[in-house]
Design a protein that fits this description.
By secondary structure, the chain is of the alpha/beta class. It has 22 helices and 13 strands. The protein has helices at 10-22, 27-30, 36-39, 58-70, 73-81, 115-134, 158-166, 184-192, 211-228, 239-242, 250-256, 282-288, 290-309, 316-330, 348-360, 392-397, 417-436, 440-449, 454-460, 482-502, 514-528, 537-547, and strands at 41-44, 47-50, 108-109, 112-113, 147-151, 175-179, 199-204, 243-247, 263-265, 335-340, 378-380, 404-409, 472-477. The strands form three sheets. A six-stranded mixed sheet has the order 1-2-13-12-10-11, sandwiched between helices. Strands 6-5-7-8-9 form a five-stranded parallel sheet, sandwiched between helices. Strand 8 (243-247), helix 11 and strand 9 (263-265) form a beta-alpha-beta unit. It starts with 9 loop residues before the first helix and ends with a helix. The structure holds 6-O-phosphono-beta-D-fructofuranose. 6-O-phosphono-beta-D-fructofuranose binds next to loops.
């Protein structure tokens, strides 16, 4: 089927004209007409999503929604949830949403209901995590486990790391560690903190071929065997008590020496960056308990239902994705910032970087043709208020347009009202400041009120001007719970899916990571060998310099 180039649709052309008409309109002018907050706020299950501080009118949103219809978004959603092979270049369905579906759901891939095997794996996660938490799983000297180390990279690391930090409030007595980088600093620094008698390693790799993960897992296993053994002892057989794995590649895991009963399966239809809902979440289940892990899945499922069943004008992921297209393709915004106003969500921007940029960083469309329009946005961010004292200068007064999501919570977990009110005052003030800005006249008045002389005012006033008109979404959620957090992640996942459809690209493959991996293998041979193979002169010189 020839899929549509978005720029050839009627609504795209209409949006181009509309963009010309409103590109210079100030949001604060738009706020003088009608109740924008009421018109452009979506409310759902403890989520309050105010997108009124965007450079949009009713007409913008209607045209964007028409565009989504022309791009056949609804049909694409049916294929996505229906288990069609929408990851065409890898010949796979994309069914991570099935992992959070209710136990009695029927979801088919290639005519087979996959829910039964999902339930089986969940049961195994539940039993194992309960044994680790309750202390009935003993290490080789009969002691309970105190430390759990997740070894993985990309989706096999970022997800578990990000969620255990986000839900740290719900964490039990166990200490969790994450090793991802092939840089030996990472594994060796972590091992220094561990006792082999009480440590469990969870090796997570969908493919079980990833260089970083296998190198780290080998180093951890060697460390365990050496450190656990008294002189004359061989502790190889005890690896089984201290190493478990999550993978689709059962043979490779067994070859590594992990007992079959300690392998948690996942499936080809779960993409690495969407795998947090599978056994890849084992470390999360161990850290926060299986019931909390289930609530996290349930929250994501609720968001899936919202996404699937809600008309586009009330649909949170669809609305957020349409705004991304509006800025990316019409205002030529290059990046989007994600600013969570809670330290718990410190790793969320990094997680969403992978989810978004590995999914939508594509320059070939679904017909295999180069695109002639911009696709995936650059995602970045840090928690507020730290980010305000670091890079907000550029968002306020720089030359770039950076649509920003502000994520905050009505209720804090710590209950310290003073801190929470200060935090949220900043959250609210920033979006107001970004929208309103400050005119030169206002700046001058302020300087006058400070008693500054006229010459100094003339000199300083231009620097005190804020253009304003900077777009933001305010995502205000009742409380950070496993359930609301699952819903938040699912919200972004669906947004990413919608963007891919609107840009007519395949969001679920990642061929772009292969070339660097291939070349690294060649370079490693050159580093370890006697002669250097053919490279450009820069790379050859660098290899020589490194080897000297
Ligand atoms: O190289 C990118 C990637 O394939 C990611 O998509 C994935 O999350 C990561 O590597 C890890 O892959 P694996 O789980 O197979 O080790």
């Amino acid at each position: 089927m020839n899929k549509i180039n978005p720029t050839t649709t009627k609504s795209w052309k209409k949006l181009l004209g509309h963009y010309d008409a409103i590109k210079s309109t100030q949001m604060k002018k738009l706020f003088q007409e009608g109740d924008r907050a009421a018109e452009f706020t979506l409310k759902w299950e403890g989520f309050y999503v105010d997108y009124s501080k965007n450079r949009i009118t009713k007409e913008t949103m209607e045209s964007l929604r028409d565009f989504a219809k022309e791009m056949k978004l609804q049909e694409a959603m049916a294929d996505y949830f229906g288990g069609q092979t929408i990851n065409e270049t890898e010949g796979r369905a994309v069914m991570h949403t099935a992992l959070r579906a209710p136990k009695d759901a029927t979801l088919k891939v290639d005519g087979q209901n996959i829910v039964d095997e999902i339930n089986e794996t969940k049961q195994k996660i539940k039993q194992f995590s309960e044994k680790i938490i309750g202390g009935s799983h003993k290490g080789f000297t009969g002691k309970a486990i105190t430390d759990v180390v997740n070894i993985g990279i990309g989706g096999s690391d970022l997800g578990p790391d990000m969620v255990t930090k986000a839900l740290a409030y719900y964490q039990n007595h166990l200490k969790v560690h994450f090793i991802s980088n092939v840089d030996g600093d990472h594994v060796h620094e972590t091992l220094k903190q561990l006792d082999p008698e009480t440590t469990l390693f969870v090796v997570v790799s969908k493919s079980f071929t990833t260089q970083e993960t296998l190198s780290n897992a080998n180093t951890a296993r060697d460390w365990f065997i050496k450190k656990a053994a008294k002189p004359g002892e061989d502790r190889k057989k005890d690896v089984a008590k201290h190493f478990v794995a999550v993978s689709t590649n059962l043979e490779a895991v067994k070859d590594f020496g992990i007992a079959e009963e300690n392998i948690f399966t996942m499936w080809e239809w779960v993409g690495g960056r969407f795998s947090i809902w599978s056994a890849v979440g084992l470390t999360i289940a161990i850290a926060i308990g299986y019931d909390n892990f289930e609530s996290f899945l349930a929250g994501a499922h609720k968001m899936d239902e919202h996404f699937k069943n809600t008309p586009f004008d009330q649909n949170i992921p669809v609305t957020l994705a349409l705004l991304t297209v509006w800025y990316n393709n019409f205002f030529k915004a290059e990046s989007e910032a994600i600013i969570p106003y809670t330290q718990y969500l410190q790793r969320l921007p990094a997680y969403l970087q992978q989810a978004t940029m590995e999914s939508n960083g594509k320059s070939v469309d679904q017909n295999g043709k180069p695109v002639d329009y911009q696709t995936g946005t650059i995602i970045w961010g840090e928690p507020g208020t730290n980010s305000q004292h670091a890079f907000f200068q550029l968002i306020h007064q720089g030359t770039k347009i950076i649509p920003t999501d502000f994520i905050g919570y009505k209720e804090s977990l710590h209950g310290d009202e003073d801190h929470h009110n200060k935090l949220m005052a900043n959250y609210l003030a920033q979006t107001e400041a970004l929208m309103n800005g400050k005119t030169e006249e206002e700046a001058r008045k302020e300087l006058e009120a400070d008693g500054m002389d006229q010459e100094k005012i003339d000199q300083l006033a231009p620097f005190k001007v804020f253009q304003g008109n900077k777009p933001t979404n305010s995502i205000l959620i009742d409380k950070l719970t496993p359930e609301s957090f699952g819903a938040l992640i699912a919200m972004y996942e669906s947004k990413i899916f919608v963007e891919g459809i609107l840009w007519n690209i395949f969001s679920f493959d990642q061929w772009g990571v292969e070339l660097g991996k291939q070349l690294a293998k060649n370079v490693l041979k050159d580093i370890n060998g006697d002669r250097i193979n053919n490279h450009d002169s820069s790379t050859t010189a660098l290899i020589n310099y490194f080897k000297k």
